[in-house]
Each structure stands twice: as structure tokens, then as C-alpha cells.
Structures
1.
Amino acid sequence: MFSLPVLIAQFVSSALHLTLSPRPLFETLQNYGHQEFLGPPTQASKSIAIVGGGSGGLAALKTTLDVAAEINEDWEVVLFEQHRGLGGVWLPDPPGHEPQPPELPDSPTYPRLIVNTANPTMTYPHVPFPPGTDLYPGWDVTRQYHVDFATQFDLWPHVRLNHTVVSAQWHGHDGYGDWHVTVHSPPVDGGSEDVVLRRTFDHLVVANGHNHYPHIPEWDGTDDWLAYPRPGLPKRELIHSIYYRDPERYRGQTVVVVGTGASGRDIALQVGTLATVYQVVRGNKTTTPGANVIEKPEIAYFTSDGIVFVDGSVVEGVDTVVLATGYEFRVPFLSAPHASTLVTDPDAEVNSTTAEHLTSNLRYIYPLHQHIFSLAPSVPPTALAFIGLPVLIANCPSDYAQGMFIGHALANASLLPSREEMLQSLLEREEHLREQGWDPYFVGHRLQNDNEAQTYQDNLVAYLKKQGAIPDDGKRYVEPWRRMGREQNFLINRGWKRIKEQGDEARWLNGVRTENQWAALLNKIAEWQSRWEKDHGISEDIVSLREYEW
Ligand SMILES: Cc1cc2nc3c(=O)[nH]c(=O)nc-3n(C[C@H](O)[C@H](O)[C@H](O)COP(=O)(O)OP(=O)(O)OC[C@H]3O[C@@H](n4cnc5c(N)ncnc54)[C@H](O)[C@@H]3O)c2cc1C
Ligand SMILES: *[C@@H]1O[C@H](CO)[C@@H](O)[C@H](O)[C@H]1NC(C)=O
Ligand SMILES: *[C@@H]1O[C@H](CO)[C@@H](O)[C@H](O)[C@H]1NC(C)=O
Ligand SMILES: *[C@@H]1O[C@H](CO)[C@@H](O)[C@H](O)[C@H]1NC(C)=O
Ligand SMILES: *[C@@H]1O[C@H](CO)[C@@H](O)[C@H](O)[C@H]1NC(C)=O
């Protein structure tokens, strides 16, 4: 790692064209014309901007640099991260800053957040967590893993922290052009004005995450319910889980948690011991095993003092409703008013065949090849790549496979099938979903099950092997142990809980260093717990992978 002065030196010597702007940023955006964008300052054969320094952006950075090194090309790869550090969702808001609506937090992370997938299954290939790491570590350990990854692979010189991409606009046509990218960062050298950077890049890799824009359902009556006078009591609250921090805040309250994804389950578990908690459970989903909650069907509407559920039941005296209702897919810097590449419209009527622009209906960005490359007619496919869109997948390994796919396609666009062929296979995926009774525009980037999630990654890498871009080792990308670790996660989780209750975790972790040793540990715990559950006549609870959605 480097010290701050070194960073500033790098920042300056990198000769990115920085301009001290005399005007506020957004005015600048409107006022500066096309011609104000400068080309890359280096002789690099390609310039690539990666937006976002979470799991996805770091995977893209490492893998594209690897490809460049392999083919002996000088690519300029810059990763812009708007926050003060790397790690994405794992980097909490700055200490002491607890944003309230309508201000959005930087991150949904809360102090008691621990991962719900065993750490060996969450890793970039061959980069295990440090020896001694809890099998289910906290957000802080997970963030440090990302920071260490950047250090281990010498990624820092390519990283620009505190740099927000505010607009990226494609100038050109479907054959050739470049991105006009506007970035802003805080003042340097004691100045008071934002630094505005405007320059072009050949390729844009979007890794901005999809746990940042809350999806907030609407019901009749919420305004009256919120305004209902409650002498001597605090105001009622209707908040999204992105604002959830400390369960103590809800002690003694009556709380309704809406949703049974990972966030809803965890919040119900944490608040359930301190408050009276009702949890809204949809369809055949279930609440968290062990949570002290009362299950409810969906909310129908609110009255001034009550919440009415679709079965006609009413709960009165609710203090707080926590909406663990998920997030929307938005990319503001590609969208109006900043740019025109991505149309965001929840009611979009165009489909993958008819869309002239890339479109987000907030659940699905389309048309994309393999959830990655834009197939919109206005931009060449390799100009615009997304990383990290698939949901219900282990992000780091999947991001890494996507990153390899992106890196090689940027090196050689002929690796990709023709746009027509790519569109055809997208339409086939959509049709396949329809045949199974799903609406592909609702399913979006959610993979159907664990098998699809693993196969997706395998296929990306297998394709590169088939094209001769990488050597064929005859193996599938997702290792058998990782597959097992995902499929048996809940069994392993129960086993690990039992090990911790026995105070035995140090013994189990003893000598576990390498990826193979972590893999063996997963197998050992799964077998140990499975045997114990059989001996005790405990039948495994079925928890579908769908519960991983936040
Ligand atoms: C509460 C919660 C718990 C989770 N728990 C788990 C878990 O236990 N296990 C697991 O595998 N996954 C978990 N996840 C999923 C997690 O989001 C992914 O694993 C992964 O970390 C996402 O990485 P990402 O890079 O795609 O997105 P993010 O981590 O969101 O990173 C995106 C980055 O892009 C930056 N950015 C966005 N816009 C701009 C811009 N315009 N300019 C510059 N920078 C920008 C953001 O600041 C951010 O740092 C959890 C998610 C949440 C919300
Ligand atoms: C980023 O901004 C924070 C303040 O928000 C500051 O403390 C930090 O030093 C900055 N980091 C860099 C690398 O500029
Ligand atoms: C829940 O219902 C869906 C379809 O409605 C089905 O695919 C799934 O298997 C069911 N899950 C359980 C746990 O019963
Ligand atoms: C896409 O929309 C067009 C026009 O509405 C329609 O004709 C076509 O059948 C749609 N395609 C699919 C696959 O739904
Ligand atoms: C680019 O990919 C195509 C398709 O796989 C291949 O035929 C061609 O040789 C590749 N070009 C280079 C320079 O590797």
C-alpha cells in the first residue's frame, strides 16, 4: 500500500487531463461541449474505464490487466471509485454519518452484517481468505479481503478513489467511436472547487453494483398512517432496509419487516429478539429459521392506525415498517439527464428485439450478451460491458469469469459471435424462461438456481477455451468443492454454528491456509454436520437459493 503523498504524486503524474473547474459540476456538464473532451494522455493501444471498486470492478481490473500482459499490449486501465475506499457494499458509510431519506446511504452495510455464504465459496479463484478467518466473516473482513486483493495484484496504481463518474456518453456509431467520460473528485491542494476530468476512453466497464437504489413498493394509506398523531411516542417510520443499522433502535417496538430475501431474513432475526416482529412472507417462502417473528401475507393497504394484510387481518400499533424489498438496476451516468445510452423505464414496452437503446425496466438491463456486452444497435458490443449483474450467484468468482470474458473480447472482438447471433441466443434464453412460466423481463438477471449460476460461469470460460483464447485444462471453471459449498451452504452454516457453540472453531481452522485446505474444510464440516443431523433425525430444512437476494 502507498501513503497519501505517493498517491497524490501518482495522481498528478498520471497526466490525466485534470481541469480545475470554476463552475459547479452539473452546470459544467451541460455547458462543456463535445470538443472539450481530450483523448487519452498516453500512447496506450487501448483505454478502458472501469466504474466501481467493489467485487466486480476489482475483478475487471485484474483480469483486463492480465490479458494485456499476456498479449504484450500496453492498455491504459483506470478504475474510478466514488467512495473513499475499495470494497463496494462492504465499505460502510463514513463513521458518524447516518443518512436519512431522501439522502441515500453509500452502502447498505450495518455493524452486525456477517456474510451468509461460506468464505471459501466467495473468493476470487485461488485467492483464499487469510488463515484463521471465520468461515462466515463480518463485513469488515470481507472488505479487507478486497483491499488485500488490490494490494496483492498491484492494482492500486490503476485505482482512483473519490472519483465519481457522472456521465459517460458514446460518440460514434455501432462500428467505431469513443466514450466521453466526465468524472469529478474533491478539491486537491486545499482548493475549494471540485476537480472535473473530461476525457475519452475506448471501452467502458460498468461495475456500479445493484444494491444501491431501493425498490420501494407503494400502498394506499401510507401517508395517513405516517401522519397519525401519537402523543408521547416517536414518529412512525417506513424505511427501506438500506437504512437499517442497529437493532437496538427498535427495542420494545412493534415492527413489520417486508420481505424474506437475505436482508429481510437477517433483520427479522436481529430485531425479533428485541421487538414484536411481523414478517411479510410472499408465496411459499418462509421466514428465517429460528427468528422470533409472526408471519403475515402481503400488505393490502394502510389505514390511519393499522396495516391491513391481503388475508383481511389487521395489525395496529406498528411503530416501524422495514422494507426489505430489494433494489433497482440503475446506471445514472449512462442515463438521462447525463447521457443517453441507457433508457430507464419501469414500464418499458420495447423488448430485446425492438429496443434501439439499452433499456432498464429496473429489474433487467437489455439487450445484453451473457449479462455482459451491450447488444443495443447504437454501440459496438465491446464498447460497453457490465460486470456483476447476475443475481443469486457467488459474486467474486462470477465477476472474475466475466472479467476474463471481457478482457479477451476487448483484446479480440472477433472472439464474440456476430451481433445477430448474440441477439438470437439472448432471445432463446428469454424464450426458455417463458416456456418455464417465467416472464424474462421480470426475472431479469436472476439466475434460476445454483446449477444455472455455476453453468453460467463455466460456459463463459469454456467459450474462451473453445476459441483458443485460453488453454483448455479440461476442467470446469467452477470447482467441484465450490459447487458443493454453495449447494450445501445451509448445512455447512448449521455445522459451523454448532462448532462455534462448542468453542471449537480454532481447532477446525488450524492449519487451513491454501485454497485446497479451505475446500477440504468445507467437505469435512458438511460430512460432520450431515452425519450428526442424520443421527439426530433432523431433516434438512429446504432453503432455496432465492433467499440470497438482498
Ligand atoms: C446487505 C448485503 C449483504 C450481502 N451479503 C453477501 C454475502 O454474504 N455473500 C455474498 O456473496 N454476497 C453478498 N452480498 C452481495 C454483494 O453485493 C456482492 O457479493 C458484491 O459485493 C457486489 O459487488 P459489486 O462490485 O457488483 O457491487 P458493489 O459492491 O455495490 O460495488 C459497486 C461500486 O461502484 C461504485 N460506484 C457506483 N457508481 C459509481 C460512479 N458513478 N462512479 C464511481 N463509482 C461508482 C460504488 O461506490 C461501489 O463501490 C450482499 C449484499 C448486500 C446489500
Ligand atoms: C477521499 O476522501 C476522503 C474524505 O471523504 C479523504 O479522507 C480521503 O483522504 C480521500 N482519499 C483519497 C485517496 O483522495
Ligand atoms: C415455491 O414455488 C415455486 C413456484 O411457485 C416453486 O418453483 C418452488 O419449488 C417452491 N419452493 C418450495 C420450497 O416449495
Ligand atoms: C417484441 O415486440 C414486438 C413489437 O411489439 C413484437 O412483435 C415481438 O413479438 C416481441 N418479441 C418478443 C420475443 O416478445
Ligand atoms: C481472434 O479470435 C478469432 C475467433 O476466435 C480467431 O480466429 C483469431 O485468430 C483471433 N485473433 C487473434 C489475433 O488472436
Note: The first strand starts at residue 18 and ends at 20.
2.
Amino acid sequence: MTTHDIPATDPVAHLVRRRPDAPVFFFRPDRLAETARRFRAEFPGQVTYAVKANPAPEILETLASAGIAAFDVASPEEMARVRAAAPGAVLHYNNPVRSGDEIAAGRARGVASWSVDRASELDKLSALAPGTEVSVRLRLPVAGAVYDFGAKFGADPDVAAELLRQVAARGLTPSMTFHPGTQCTDGAAWARYIHAAADVAARACVPLARLNVGGGFPSHRDADAPDLARIFDAIGSAARTAFDAPPTLLCEPGRAMVAEAVTLCLRVKATGAEAITLNDGVYGALGEWRDLPPAARIRVVSPDGAARRGDPVRRVVFGPTCDSLDRLPDALPLPGDVAEGDYVLIPGMGAYGAALVTGFNGYGARDVVTLGAAE
Ligand SMILES: *Cc1c(COP(=O)(O)O)cnc(C)c1O
């Protein structure tokens, strides 16, 4: 990854000056720090960051200096990245399935908290990581998320109650966790889970040390920014109603924390009446597009920095590789006067953009330009 620094905060100034032919991630550390501060000020509990959304060193370092002190990791590689960027940070290993070697790697790096969704994983942990916090991961059928995370991980309420009893019986610190999905726009998704978690804890007769309400907070994809404060209120009030003595709450946002900090800039390689070819695609930074298209707020500028303002025309969009699957699923409305050499600026691409780049066929966005920092 190449990082250049340029003082201006406007990506177009950089484009006009440098005319990059390869894709560029424009990173705004000030925006990331601002989002972290907002989560810390408004979420009714502790705020951690789900590293998988974007594990780049500059992201982890910015979050650590904005006061994010704990990170949700899912692999030894993610632990190493956090330790390199923020040596004193607290690690939560919330991938519920781990090999014995991965547990040992977590122990060696001082993991403070783990999650489980089945008895066999609890057996491994109580042997290999005695005395730590173990969160039982609950799942419910969920409406309103783009993906259903319960399809892979989580214990149904009866199993969760039994696991929670076992966690307490084995002298581990009992907590619970869930993950409602991703890009959930309705606080009700969390409230249902919070009530169900309180019910599981009551049935198990085990008071929870902490309740981790996962990630899933929405990023800005439509014309209007999502209302995070309303979701935070729904979470806080559900916890107060569901528990007599609410446990400490914890969240682990990925997408909503980092998305707005990065604008992806792609270049138009060729145009035709019906199709357009860009310099990155679904094997690169647009890997999530099939499930979650970033529809609104795209702008196109000429190499001189002039905004293209033609009436929108829907065109098929191909990526740069020689694979015929390398196209966006739906035609994309772009200004009718878009031309070869133009730049397409896509805001809100900080989450699951860089993290999903494959490098297939030698393509895939790599370059990061940090905006607002000294040269
Ligand atoms: C992916 C993931 C997150 C982050 O999800 P976002 O939708 O990006 O906020 C948080 N917790 C767990 C357990 C996850 O798997």
C-alpha cells in the first residue's frame, strides 16, 4: 500500500494535480476521529471497533488516538495488526469458532474476552483460557438487516441458557453477545435481542457482567445520513426495561465507524453507449456491491476537476479484469457526459472496501491518500 499525504481536504485537488491512473482511497483521519468521538459520547456503554471492516494501520492508529481502547478481532493476523498499531489495546476475540492454536495465539497476545456459541468451543476455552470473560453468542431470526448473521453463528435461546450456566459453573466471567446483522437501520433489531438476552440470563439464573450488542450500525448510503442517536436511545432504553440491574453495555461497530472516513476514486477506462469500464470492480474495492450497492452520492469529475452534470444515463459497469463476472449487478446511473479519463468519486467506502480487495488479475485498489495531513 502506498500512502501519500497532501494537505487539502478536497480529493478533487489531488486528482487535478496528480491525475492518478490507479484507484485511490482518500482517507480523512479527522472524520474518523470525529465518528469515534461521537460513538464514545453517545453510545450508552463501552465502544470497541470490529477490525474486519478495515484493518489498515492508519485506521487502527487513528481510532486508538481518538480513544478507542478495545478492538474486536477474529484471527491471529488481526491481533497482530492491532498490537502493531495500538500496543496497549484490549483485544476481544469474538469469532466464536477457533482452533486450539488460535486460542494459544490469543492467550499469548493477552486476549481479555472470548465468545462461544457451542459446548465444544466452551470446553476448549475453559481448558486453554481459564479465568477469562466468555460471552455466549445468542441468535434470533432477524428482520431488517442486509445479511442475516444468525445464519452462521449464535446459539438459540435454550442452548444459550445452558452455555451461560456452564460459563458461570466453570469460573469464567459470564457475559452475552449478539450481532444483529449489518447496516441495520432500526433500533428494534437491537431491542429484540436485548430483551431475549435478558430472558436467557434470567432463565440461567446468571447475572451478566457485560452485554455486547455487536455491530450492525448503519453507514450513510441513501441521500440522508442515518440517525445513530435514535438507535443508541433504543438500545439504552431496551437495556433499562429488560434488566432489573442492566449489565455494562458494549458495542463493536465496524461499518458505521469507518465508512464515512474514506472516499474511493475510480477512473473511467472506456465508455460506450451502454457500458462503461472502470479501473476497479467486484474483485477489488467494490466487492460488497452485489449485496449492498452504494447507490447515492456518487459524483463524476473530468481530469480538470469539473463536475459532470449531464442527465443520468444508466449503463452497465465493468471492472478491469478479464473475467466476465467482473461487472456490477445493476446498471448504474451516471452523468450522460461521462468520458474516458474521468474520475468517479464514491463516498462512504471505508468499510469492507479495502478489506475485500483480492488483487485478481493484478488489479484492485491499493493506494491511500491521507487528506488533511501535512505533506
Ligand atoms: C462483522 C462483525 C461486526 C461489525 O459489523 P458491522 O456491520 O460492520 O458493524 C461486529 N461484531 C461481529 C461479531 C462481527 O462479526
Note: The chain has two domains: 3-26+259-371, 29-258.
3.
Amino acid sequence: MALAEVFQGLGTSQTLLTVVSLALGVLAAYLYLGRSLPEGTPPLIKGDWPLIGPTGFWTRRWDFFREAAKASGNFSFHVGNRIVVAVSGDEARRAFVESRHLDASAGYAALFAGAPTVPKAVDTDQEDYNEQHFFRRITAMLKKENFVKGLDALISDTRTRLQDLVNDPKGMTDPFESIYGIVYQLTMRTVACNEIANDRVLLDQTLDMFEKIEAASSAKLIILPWFPFPGKLRRLWYGGKLYMIFKKIIDDRAKTGRKEDDPLQFLIDKGDNVSEILTFILGALYAGQLNSGVNAAWVIVYLANDPYWRGKVWEEVKAMAERYDSDTSKSIAERLASAPLEAWETELPTIDLCLRDSIRLNLVGSMFRQNQSKSPVKVSEGAEIPSGAFAAYPIGDVHLNPEIYANPEKWDPSRYLPDRAEDQKIKFGYLGWGAGRHFCLGMRFAKLEQNIILAFFLAYFDFDKLVDENGKQITEQPPSDLNSYSAVKPKQKIYVKYSVRG
Ligand code: HEM
Ligand SMILES: *[C@@H]1O[C@H](CO)[C@@H](O)[C@H](O)[C@H]1NC(C)=O
Ligand SMILES: *[C@@H]1O[C@H](CO)[C@@H](O)[C@H](O)[C@H]1NC(C)=O
Ligand SMILES: *[C@@H]1O[C@H](CO)[C@@H](O)[C@H](O)[C@H]1NC(C)=O
């Protein structure tokens, strides 16, 4: 039954392809599974099918981790021919985020696979790409001085996009389209190039390609990464198209000698070659988009249903606008545009609380690591990840734990206020921006863009209703999909009904 579900998930239209490749893979995996796990590795879970592993990992990830951990504590399973050790509990979480030998990039590359990469067919150099290059460049790009310089552009991008909503007579918007699109434009502005950030058509086209690449990633591609499933071909196709769009821009600048004041120019001036630049830009856009875009939209959805927090945020936004521009003949949105970077970063603490609890609910799935240590090292007792194997920590183990977060499935920013401080109850009690050795490098930018987008949305619009596509009110808070692999847009479309503030 569960296995049938997985086969369905694997795509019935390609059944033949799937069956043939599964048969091949089963053989390989069978040989592999015959090997026993090194001592100290938690035992293999029941229902660990050859090749596919446990079906629940693919069909309902959080339920699977939670039920299996309850039954067997830490446990191991297979994904293709890889061994994954699922760990949970306080001590394991701590080792997971702090261990020097557990590598995050390799973990996600093998087991997550939603990110676009430069297709090999187009770029034969990519194997040489040095991860340190990515971290160095993104750190330089996301420095404070660049935000000071870029603030006006971020504000003007946001206001232009919101003006589209002002002009739209329908007065309702799906924030997972509109707000998500604004986040994409701001991300493009901050880690990529002006040619696209200035061009609404190119923005929409390239965002569509990113989304197609993401949608084409599936269990199959993770289990058999080398097999040319249609999804893999789609990923290559759209990856290739993105590559060509950026390459054309780079070539054009080289040919005409034109310089821009933007992140791409920074990379070109550093002497990076086309292959390095493209790998960087695709990675940075992806890292910057999904969580930021999905959470910005969710916060607006939560606020639409919550007069208390909406009122509090609005008070803060209004106060900030009034503080930096005393001209009462102007609109709050106009006055807001005078606030300096420091104000944007420190004077909207309620938005931060709102975002914090949205991330807790929407950073779902699991964190991955690979043990890249070849030789035994002394680590604290407990679950051992064999050399080359993977570790998975389901984020719900802490974020949805009712002993830490009261009523965990409810969005409630007040849980972080000093009198409750639920996230401080235990060490690494909140993983929303990473912890230990891997902390989000984009947090400062992500918070800044959330603040700008939300503050201007409140400054332009009054909103207190969620509706469906026919304009019928939705009173129940739509739930987040706690079983998905990563932050996702809700399955059912939600619209926010708004009126333009006078
Ligand atoms: C609401 C928005 C965001 C959330 C919730 C978020 C969350 C996270 C988390 C939880 C991690 C650690 C993952 C792990 O340890 O396994 C992380 C890492 C990272 N994030 Fe973010 N992020 C956001 C926005 C951004 C943005 C806008 C950028 C860049 C433009 C970015 C760039 C990165 C990078 C480069 C890393 C890797 C750091 C490392 O491996 O050491 N993130 N993020
Ligand atoms: C680009 O730079 C990388 C790293 O320096 C190098 O490995 C690669 O061969 C270069 N590619 C081209 C086309 O020059
Ligand atoms: C990673 O593998 C090495 C070599 O087998 C082992 O000594 C080490 O304890 C492992 N690390 C973890 C965190 O399990
Ligand atoms: C997993 O292993 C860790 C480390 O030994 C231990 O503290 C934790 O309790 C285990 N988790 C479960 C659910 O048994």
C-alpha cells in the first residue's frame, strides 16, 4: 500500500522507465544492503526497502521521522545506496549542528536536490567549483555597506511592485505570487544583476524557470541521480536556459565595456570566470529565494487573520515613518521611504517576531549532513554516523515539540516575548537561522527585505480578510504542510483581500 503510493509518487506515466531502472538499482542496493553497518551505527529501520528506503521518508516526512523515532530512537535507513542516520533528541541535535566532521553542503547536495545547478552539458568546468568561493563572495556581497548603498533600490523596487496592486481593481492578491515575486526581484538586485532586476519580463521568465527546476526535483532524482528521468531532463533544460540568459548578459558587458554598479560587476571585477559567476549566481538566488519568499507571504496571510498582531506591526510602521519624516501632508508610505538603514534594521521588532514564528512553522523537512571524516575521531558517545554516511535531523523534533513550544502548530509571535521565551528553554531550541557551525549567511539581508516588504504592504493597504479565488472568505487559518521537504506554498490558493489606505 505505502509502496504503491511511492510508485505513484514516482510518476505513473513513466512507469516502464521507472521499473527498469528500479530493477537495476535494486540489484546494486541489494548487494549494498547485505553489508552490515559499522558498530555504533543505529540499527536499520523496519520497512527499509532496497533502493527506495522507507516509503514514509518520501510521502510524509515529518510523520515518518516522528513515528520511527518514537518506536526506535535513533535509526538508520537507505536512500538509494546511501546510508542515512536519523537522529533526534537534545544531545543528538547538539552533535549534529556542532560536529566539525559533518558537512552541510555535501549533505544537501546528495539528499535535497531542489537547487538548480549549471548543467554539465553546458559547462564542463563545474566539477572544479570551489565551495569556499561561494561563501567568500556571498559574505562580501551581504556586507552592511552594500545595504546602505542598495537601500533606495530595494525600497523603490518594492513600491513599484506594490503600486501594481494599488492599480488592480480586483483588490485581492495571492501573496505566494505577488509577494514571492517581490522577494525575487530584491534577491536579484542584491546577489545578481540589474539587467534582470530592471526588467519585469525577464524577472518573471527566470523566476518561472527556477520554479520549474524546483518542481522537477523528486524522489527519483535523489535515489538515482545519474538516471535520465524526464524530471532530470527538465531540470537540465531550464538550467541551461538560465545559464544562457546570464551568459548573454556577461558577454554583452565584456563586448561593450559597459559597467554596472551591481553584484555581477563585483564578480566580474574580482576576475571570476563565467563558470564561477554562474554557479555562484544560481546558488545565491536559490538560497535567497525559497525561504524568504515563502515566509514573507505567510506572514501576510497570518496577519490578515490576526487583528492584534496586524495592529501592533502597523503601529510600529507608522511610528517609524513619523520619526523620520514629520511632513503630515505626505502618505505614510512616502514618509517611510526616508528611514535610514539603522531604522529598518532595529525599529521593527514585531515584524521580527512574526517572521520568527513563521519560519518555525515553515522550515520543515530535515537538515542533512555528510560525515566526511575518513578516520575515527573521538566524539561523544551515542549515535555514530559512519564515514561517508549521512545524518538527518528532522527540524520538527525541536520546532514542533510541545514541551518547548506550547501549542506548536499555532502561529504565535508572543511565544518569544521575555515572559515566555520558549526558544531559550534549551540549547539550540530554535534552528530557524541555523545554529552551531552553519548559520544562515543571508539572515541580515532576509530580515531587511522582509521588513521593507511588510512595512510598505501595511503602509499601502488595509487588509483583514483571506478569500479563495472566487472572493469567498476563508476563516480557517490554512495549515502549513509539515510533511513537505522544504518551505512550500500552500496547495490551495489563498488570496488576501485589501483596500488602499486613504
Ligand atoms: C527567511 C529567510 C531565510 C531562512 C529561514 C534561512 C534559513 C537558513 C538556515 C536554517 C540555514 C542553515 C541550514 C543548515 O544548517 O542545515 C541557512 C543557511 C544558509 N543561508 Fe539562509 N535562510 C534565509 C534566507 C537566506 C538568504 C536571503 C540568503 C542569501 C541571499 C541565504 C543564504 C544562506 C547560506 C549561503 C547558507 C549556508 C551557510 C552554511 O552552510 O554555513 N539565506 N539559512
Ligand atoms: C574558471 O575558474 C576555475 C577556478 O579558478 C577553474 O577551475 C576553471 O577551469 C576556470 N574556467 C575557465 C573556463 O576558465
Ligand atoms: C564520522 O566517521 C568517523 C570515521 O568512521 C568517525 O570516527 C566519527 O565518529 C564519525 N562522526 C560522527 C559525528 O558520527
Ligand atoms: C539519539 O542519540 C543521542 C546521542 O547518543 C541520544 O542522546 C538521544 O537520546 C537518541 N535519541 C533517541 C530518540 O533515542
Note: The chain has one domain: 32-500.
4.
Amino acid sequence: MNTQEFIALEKKWGATNYKPLDVVLERGDGIWVWDVDGNRYMDCLSAYSAVNQGHCHPKILQTMQEQAAKLTLTSRAFRNDQLGLFYKELCELTKSHIALPMNSGAEAVESCIKAVRKWGYKVKGVPEGQAEIIVCENNFHGRTVTIVGFSTEAQYRDGYAPFTPGFKVIPYGDAQALEDAITPNTVGFLVEPIQGEAGIIVPPPGYLKDVRRICTERNVVLMTDEIQTGLGRTGKLLAEEHDGVEADMTMIGKALSGGFYPVSAVLSNTEVLGVFQPGDHGSTFGGNPLACAVARTALRVLVEEGMIENAARQGEYLMGCLERIESPHIKEVRGKGLLIGVELHPEAGGARQYCEALMKRGLLCKETHQNVIRIAPPLVIKKDEVDWAMEQFEAVLA
Ligand SMILES: *Cc1c(COP(=O)(O)O)cnc(C)c1O
């Protein structure tokens, strides 16, 4: 079957909630992927940062195969020999007290919201049903009804009401707005260290530090959504480290499995997660031995193979090169590590056409919103490969 035939199948049988580029991939290795017609592409999206470790990383693959042949799922009705080790290694690496394993990113966010609300009632003493959580404009935390209910993106909400109450929206990057929005019933503040889906929006320097101080002073739980920014993407294990802060709760997902399997987690620095008693919350697949084994290796290779440092080094180099492109179309280049956004002027005609032109030159990336090209290759990219990518960006943008 060829590309057009695969696309026709999707069109006939699938829900059309995505509009992918017309490339049908069948194989991946590191930063490279191949389509069904045998063409090779550099992957500069990394499945929205889920394959930070590169496609089909051999060590994660080996773990996946070995564990899949041994034991995949026990449910949490019984214990398994991977979960405890996963907890220990994850918490030691991220300097967390305890963790909660889930599957998708959205589930981690939902779990965090549940824990923080319960903490508000049981510990902070907020009157039942009155807990408020503050979130930011242009946030992206997933696609459940509760989460899209506090999105400010009209399309994400359209047609899905009624929504869960108890959320208040403030501008992103504005610590004073947080200070002003807090009431005695505020239990938590949910924020992305860099807003990924909003178009790689980097807040002003010191923002997270101010936010940390305000949350501590006002007894509000600081929740950082590091599902996209975490696990090395920005050149640190967690993006919050750039500001030298530790959130009370941190959500990770995506690259936690290196792209092999949906694995997410809520990390807790305080005892907020400790409010859960047996039966309060759960997931059939959360904490299963296959997920835990895969995640353990995915974390190990991230550290052992120097991917975080490489993201910092190659990210700085790539960003410098992008800033030097002389192009009438580029409005701004921004980001941290290997999470980079190139914003085009509105007159450039939209980022999509540039992504399509890049695809023809063997480089895959995806527009976010109208005018931003997101560049986020796997963290294993080397300098000469960055140079090759730059040739393609220059050819298309200059
Ligand atoms: C991708 C993402 C999510 C949602 O993760 P899913 O696995 O798609 O549910 C949540 N928050 C952020 C910041 C993300 O980038």
C-alpha cells in the first residue's frame, strides 16, 4: 500500500479530530523516521516531546520486550516487583517525597486536581464544595471535560459544556495577578513553566520564583505541569530548575516512557498526595509492571547517556543559528533547550505551509496555532544534524 491508500483508509474509517501532515511513517531510529515510500525525515516534533530519548531507543526496547514476556499487568489489586523500584528511582531523581503513577498526561493532571482539592478540604480547612484552583490563560493541560472547561481556547471547549466549576483564569507570566486572585478558598495554582501548546511562551525571568514565594506565603499548592517541559526537554531534568524552584506537585508524562507506552505520574514534594486513602483514586493500568519497567529504563538512559546536557548544548546552538537567519517572515525565536518556537509574522501566510515545505526537504515539524513553528527534536540530536536541519530552515524561511 502507498501513502495515498493509507490516508484514504484513515479518512474512511477514522474520526477526523486531527489534521496531520500527509506523511505515513512506518519506522523510526533515533532522530530519524521513514515513511511507507522509503523517504527519510528528521523528526523535529518528537511526538510532542514523548520521544525525547529518540525513536525505538535500543535499551528501552530491550526492557519492553523482556518485561512484556514476563509480566505486563497485575492491576493494583496485587503488587508487582517493578512498582516499588519505579517509585524509588523516580522520586530520588526528581527529589520528590512520593509519587502517583497514571497513564496519560491528562490523567496525571486530573489526579493532581483531585489531590489538591481533597487537601484543601481535609488539611487547609476550605468549606466543602468551595475549593478554587487558579490556572493561566492559554494553558494546555489535556482534553478531559474538566480540563477543557478551564481552557481559554474556544475550539477546545466548543460543544462540551457543562463544565466542572471551581477554576479561575489569570494572565500567564504575571505574578501580581496570582497574588490578587488568591482567596481564602484557593487551594492550588496550576501552571506550565513554558507554555508549549500556546506557542512556546516563555514567561519573564523570575516568574516561577515569585509564584513559588506567593504560593508559600498564602498556603496555596503550586502545581507545575511538566508533561511537555520535563524530562530534559529544556536542558534541565525539570524546567522549574531554571528558576531554582521546587513545586509542591509536578506532573510528568510523555517522555516518561520514551514513547513506548503511555506512562505519567504526579510527583509530590509535600504531603498533599498523602491525602489519598485506599479506594480514593485509582487506575487499572496505572503502575503496571510493563509501564514501570519501561519508565525506569527511559529515565536511566536520559541521565546516563547525557541527553539533558545535550539538550542544553544543542538547544543553545540551534537557537543561536535560528536567531541569525535573515528572514522577512520571522517575528521572534524563543524557547529553552530543545523546546523552540519560531513565530512568523501574520503576513507570512501561516506556519503550516512552511512545515509542508520542510517536509518536502526531509524535516518534520508541526505548526502550533497559526503562526508558530515548533522545533523539538529528540534530545539525542548531534551538532552536524543540527547543521543539516538549519540548512533546511534557511532554505524555507530565508
Ligand atoms: C501533552 C500535554 C498534556 C496532556 O497529555 P496527554 O498524554 O495527551 O493526555 C498535558 N499538559 C501538557 C503541558 C502537555 O503538553
Note: The radius of gyration is 21 Å.
